[in-house]
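Assess the record.
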Amino acid sequence: MKVIFMGTPDFAVSTLEALYKAGHEVALVVTQPDRPKGRHGEAQKSDVRIAAEELGIPVITPLKIRSDEEAKARLKDIAPDVIVVTAFGQILPQDILDIPKYGCINVHASLLPKYRGAAPIQWAVLNGDEESGVSTMLMDAGLDTGDILMTKKLKLDPKETGGSLFDKLAVLGGELIVETLDALKEDKLTRTPQDPELATKVGLFTKSSGLIDWTRSAAEIERQIRGLNPWPSAYSFLSGKQLKLWDADVLKKDDFTDTDSPVAVLDNDRNSSASDASETGSLYVSDKRLIVSCGEDFLRINELQLEGKKRMSAEDFLRGYRFSV
């Protein structure tokens, strides 16, 4: 099939590469313009643009494809059989949706209609879902509201992180789009309308999304740590310094009977001076373990990173850190 591919971040690269390897004619790649990144703010190409150029595929980078008539004209000139969209980052207007012979197909990292919108991968971990997956959807003018074409599911690992699930679903998305186009070519696709009553919509995360509220249960916080790993990461503050938490386990209340006083309190503000040892966020050292009291149960910290230091195990941290008590 003659395909135009639209995508931007690294998640979309697997889909592009799968299309190419399957022998489809990827006539054009459309991606977001170069953006300033890094410490020096230098303009950098999107991951999809880098991959497309390595494959020798023409690339365009419209700032707003909705109003870019030159870009639209190029799409029409190519006359694609299908436009495949994966994490492109722009809403397509109806006049673009109408260009391809078989429509525009989106590869979405959730089991639609659950988790429409941005960041579906992290939300699956945050909410403690037992399974996740990818969906291919025939796009319409709404946001992730089109008919479902095919899905692929996978079971989440007990220690699944946002990063590990991202990698798995990226590969799964590439596999699914190839299967979807094969079924489309053979006229074996079944369109399943989404049930709006089952739809959930999720939004993007910011750096502040990682701030831990210690009044929540240990189970919720443990999922926050995994779901926001690697970005924006879950964090608190210890003596005014940011403390990122990378791995932890839930410790039931009955399993922690240490009677020693806490050595510190983890705060939700860099400038806080919390000192009430009875409040949630109290930090205990017990049998070389680092344990925090939560709204329900306790959290045993396994891996952490104090501001200005490298990521390390709790045991290594305890060897070098001196609490002021």
Observations:
- The chain has two domains: 2-202, 207-320.
- The first strand starts at residue 2 and ends at 7.
- The two ends are 68 Å apart (CA to CA).
